[in-house]
Structure formats: structure tokens, C-alpha cells
Amino acid sequence: MIATVGQYAVVAAAQPSPAQTAATRADALIRAKKYDAAKTFLESYLKVHPADAEAHAMLGVTMAYLGDPIASANAFDGAGARLPDAFKGFAAKAYADAAVAAFKAKDANKSVAFASKGIRLERLPDAFFIRATAYVELGDYPHAIADFEQAKAQATAAGDKAALLLLDTALVRAYAFGGQFDKSAALAADVKKRDAANTRVDDILAEYFNARATDALAAGKRDDAVALYESGAVALPSRAVILYVAAASALSNALFPDWKRVKAEADKALAIDPLSPRANYIAAVALESQGDRLGALALVRKAKNNLTAGDAFEATVDGLIAKLEAPAVRVEVVPAK
């Protein structure tokens, strides 16, 4: 007996759709941890059914389990605005992971884009953190600060002390380079109170002073650069030796150096650490340039004796020692006849 059209409709309605069949098969493969097979099946299926948002989402899940966060995010992109609600939490995490991968691949713009997609799905602290980090890389400090502060608010609410230290350290950099140095310095002091072993904030602030001084030197403002190094040394006692040596070095590179001034800056470093190899070296250069070979030799030998093994600076120190230990060349002026 031939079925009527009405009877066929009843039978057809009872059969699963291609999308339902695909979802069931993909789900079974994923649950069985057969991710390569799931990937092959879903990619083949999507060539024929490119509008199936659930299949795109399942491919996103599959690629995440295969350890390819960029491919996972791209697969979730395929679902677009039709991404099923059941996948949104997973997709948000996948976009955050893709943002991290893009940042590691030195593509900060793509990192921001991935993180932003994830945040639109769910406001994960990790997504705000990686987007802020990418903004710092791009020099967009206002947006970086806003994202770090948002992540900090979430960490505060969760009582996550470890995350708060990480975020505050990141904010020290963002505030400083974003033109809010006073806020940066205050936060750095607070971080040191909570974690006395944290030297990262000192490094960040020293980097800030060095960056500003370097810009001043590039602009031909040597005295401004020296003033910045000195301000940094006062603000950061733990990095004062390095910054005073930098000031001395900046002065020594002038077209016509004031060697007494160079020596004075080096002496500030030596007053804190008499054994500093670099401070002793630059002080030796200053003395040698003023004609005090014996004084210079004593200082450069001290620099040599306090170098750590393998320090590349040793070759420079040895060069000055060799120069100072060489017999002085006597120049005789022969009267004209």
C-alpha cells in the first residue's frame, strides 16, 4: 500500500533532522574523547551545512580540547549571534584562552579582539586581565587601567589575595606609564607592605624613570635626564645605585663631558654600594680623564674584583685596566732650529 502525503509527513516528522543527527554524533565523539574524529566529522559536515550554529559551537569545543585556542575561537565565530546559550560559558573561556595565545604570538590587536568577544559573553576576570595586558603592549594605558581595575574589583569581591597582588603589580606599571605616577608610587608602597619580597614593583618604577630619562636624552635634554635618574634614585632606594650609575653614564656621553660631575654622580652610587663594579668603573673613567691614572687603576681593579662570573662587562673593565697599566707615552717637544 502506498503511503498518503499525510502519512509521510507523520513519519518524516518522527525522524531526526540532519542537524540533530550531526549534534548527536559529534557529542558522542567528544564524550568519548575522540577529538580528532570529531574535528574531521564536524569540518566535513559544516562544508555542507555552514549555517549550523550548534555544529560550529561543537567544533569550537573540539578544538579547545585539541589544544588549539585560536582555532577554537574561530569556530565559535562561525556560530556568531546564533551561538546556543548552552555554549556561551565555554566560548567565553575559549576566547580568553585565544587572547592569551594571540598575545604570546605578539599580536596584541588580535588579543584585544578575542578578549572583547569573550567579555561580551561573560565578564571573566582572566579576559579583562589579558585584554588589559594587550592594551599595555599597544600603549593604550587608559583602557588598560580600566580593565585592570575591573579585574581587581572582581578579585576583591572573591577575596583572591594572590590575584590582587598580580593585578596591583600590573596597575603599578599602567598607572606610571599612563601618566599617574603618584598613584603608581602609592600602590607600589602598598604592594610592598603586603609582600615585602616583591621586587617587581621596584623594577617597574626604575624602568619608568629610565624610559623618561632615555626620552629626554633623545631630545637632547641631558640635564633633564640626569635629574630624572636622580629623582628615581631618591624614590627607589633599592635601585639607587643603578640609577646614579645611569646618571653618571649619561653625563660621560656628552660631547665635552664634565668629568668632575661624572665622578660626583658615581660617588653617590659608591656611597651606597662601595663594591659596585659599574660605579667603580665609571668613577675610574672620570679619574683617568682628569689625569689621575693611579686613582683610576685602583677603582677599576676594585670593579674587576667584584664582578660576578660570566658578566659580559668584564671585557670592558679589562680594556680599561690594560690601558691604565700600559707605560705612559712621553711626548717630547723638539725646539725648532
| Class derived from helix and strand content | mainly alpha
| CATH superfamily heading of the domain at 14-104 | Tetratricopeptide repeat domain
Radius of gyration: 32 Å
Low-confidence stretches: 1-15
The averaged pLDDT comes out at 92
CATH topology (level 3) name of the domain at 14-104: Serine Threonine Protein Phosphatase 5, Tetratricopeptide repeat
Largest sheet: none
Shape: elongated
From the 3D coordinates, which CATH architecture of the domain at 14-104 would you assign? Alpha Horseshoe
Instruction: State the helix count.
Output: 18
What is the distance, rounded to the nearest whole angstrom, between the alpha carbons of the first and last residues? 139 Å
The SSE order reads HHHHHHHHHHHHHHHHHH
Give structural notes.
With 337 residues, the protein is mainly α. The chain has a domain at 14-104: Alpha Horseshoe (Serine Threonine Protein Phosphatase 5, Tetratricopeptide repeat), CATH 1.25.40. It has 18 helices and no strands. The longest helix is centred in the middle third of the chain and has 19 residues, at 200-218. Mean pLDDT is 92; it is low at 1-15. It has helices spanning 5-13, 18-31, 35-48, 53-65, 69-79, 88-104, 108-121, 125-138, 141-158, 161-177, 181-194, 200-218, 222-235, 240-252, 259-272, 277-289, 293-305, 314-325.
Helices and strands, with pairings:
Elements: H1 5-13, H2 18-31, H3 35-48, H4 53-65, H5 69-79, H6 88-104, H7 108-121, H8 125-138, H9 141-158, H10 161-177, H11 181-194, H12 200-218, H13 222-235, H14 240-252, H15 259-272, H16 277-289, H17 293-305, H18 314-325
Helix pairs in contact: 2-3, 2-4, 3-4, 4-5, 5-6, 6-7, 6-8, 7-8, 8-9, 9-10, 10-11, 10-12, 12-13, 13-14, 14-15, 14-16, 15-16, 16-17, 17-18
